[in-house]
Design brief:
- The protein is an alpha+beta fold.
- The protein folds into two domains: 124 residues, Beta Polymerase, domain 2 (2-Layer Sandwich), CATH 3.30.460; 92 residues, no CATH class.
- Helix content is 55%, strand content 11%.
- The protein contains ten helices and five strands.
- β3 and β4 form a beta hairpin.
- α6 runs antiparallel to α7.
- The longest helix has 22 residues.
- The radius of gyration is 19 Å and the shape is globular.
Amino acid sequence: MNGSALGLDLVRDHTILSVVTGSRAYGLATGGSDVDRRGVYAAPAPLFWRLTKPPTHLDGPLPEQFSWELERFCELALAANPTVLECLWSPLVEKVTPAGEELLAVRSAFLSRHVHRTFLRYAEAQFRKLAGDLRNGGAPRWKHVMHMLRLLVSGLHCVRHGEPRVDVGDLRDRLLAVRRGEVAWSEVESWRAALTADLAAAAPRSPLPPEPDRAKIEDLLISVRRRSIDP
């Protein structure tokens, strides 16, 4: 079986969780918004016994669809990757198997105070790039500006309340105005600075634990692997 055929089989036959993310999950969809799908597939354990291992991630088969193999997904979530964490809290779940339900049941085990650092680092990297575009005489990509601010809003909510915030529909008008380029750059900078300061202030009082619960996640991964051999 070639790699592409194996990939299609893994997504089709072994997906345990599939959600819609992006603007539709954020409450920021417009008429031309894509349907961004993200998923998790659990490759059967015997595939790891081969010299050629199963892929850690796959595109497709649907447009705007991307999936991670369970182990890679867990590694990224334990590192507080914002894109991966939002999959676990997306309000738009399209498919979930019993193993997917188990994954969702332990989603809080992925969270830790590393969220503060990781979300802030992602937002700062985006901001530097956008500010560089502005300095070089062009205009920032306003859609990316909007998502930088949304990322900070989500991170602040997580640090304060113990879980990421995906739906930001109550901020829809303000964020879409940013996307349309109707908000002055100085106001964007002020909003970003306020969110960043709030994140720093919230971090010491966060209900999040210092470290994620790696043991709980590893127990789930081992259980899923074992059941793929002996259901």
